[in-house]
What we know:
The protein has about 350 residues and is an all-beta fold.
Amino acid sequence: MSMKPYPILLPLALALASCGGGGSGGGGNNGGLLTAQSVANSGNFASALRFLPDGDILFTELDTGNVRIVDNGTLLPTPVFHVDVDTAGERGLLGLAIDPNYASNNFVYIFYTKSSGTENEVLRFTVTNNVGGSATPIVSGLPAANNHDGGRIAFGPDCKLYVTLGDVGTSSNSQSDATPAGKVLRYNPNGTIPGDNPVGGNPMFAKGLRNPFGLAIDPDTGSVMVSENGPGCGDEINLVTSGANYGWPTVPCGGSQVGFVDPLYEFPEIVAPTGIAFGTGAYDNTLLVGNFVDPSDPMIARSLLQFDLSTMASGSIGPPTVRYNSSSPIIDVAMGPDGNPYVCTAAGEILRLVP
C-alpha cells in the first residue's frame, strides 16, 4: 500500500465505557448511499479520528504532527498537541486512542514515527481545556520504515491497549516472534506487557500480518478486527484472536493452509482498506471500512463500505455494501454520539454521514 502523495476504530462507546463493555442498539442500517455533511477541514492529511466523552472530535494530521480538536462544532486554530514526525514514505502521525477512563484522567494516546525516522512510538499526553500537556512515552523503540508501519491503536474492554505494526518492509518479520513487526501488539495502559499475552514477556497478541491499517474492538464482545493490506492481492478483513497466525508471507493471497487463520473476507481486487469501526445503534452488527485506492469497480472507489457481521460466527462475511463514495481517500471512521458515522480524509476533511 503506497501512502504518498496519499498514504496508502474505535467506537464511541469504547471511549466512553470504563473497561468492561458498552451498550449498542439493534437494527443494521443497510440503506442506500449516505450524504456527507462537512464538520471541519484543516487542509492537512487527516489520519485518525476519535470522539471525546463530551462529543468533541480529536483528529490527527499525518504530516504536520498536530492533534486537532473540533470543539462544539468549531475547528480550533491552535493544535491541542504537537509532536515532531518523520514523513518519508508511509511514516508520520498515524494513530489515536482515547483512554477509557478519560473522564477521570484526561489521557490521550498517539502512534507516530519519531523525527529520526528509525523508530515508531506510542505516546500518552493529557488534555485540559483543549490544551495538551504531560507527554509520557508508553511504548518506545518500535521499528519504523518507509512502508508498512501500521500505526493504529485502540483500547479493548479488557483495559488493554492494542497496537498494529506492519512488517516495516521486511516480510519475514511477520513470522518471527523476535520482532514486534508484522503483529497486533497488546500492552497494559502504561506500556508494560500483560501476563496473559500468548508468549510470556512478549507484547505479541497475533502475528502474520503485512500492514494492518485499520483496528476496531467491539466494546461488548471484545472482538478485535483489523483491515489488512496485501501486495498485489490479499486485502483482507481479519478477526484477530490471541496467539493466531494470519499467514503473511507464507500464505500471501488467500487459500487455506494448516496452522494459519483465514480472513473473514478477502477483497477480489486491491482497495487498500484503511480505518474501520464497529457500528452501533442503527448500524449495530456491522463493520464500517474505509478504503484508499480507486479499484476497477467505480461503485467502491474511495468508499465507506459496510459489512454485515451476522454471519461472522461461520468464519466469513461479505461482500460489503457501499454507503458513501468519496472524492478523497477515506483514512479513518468512527461512530459519533449522534449515531452517525464520521470519516476523515486525505484532503483533511471531517465528514458526518447521514441517511
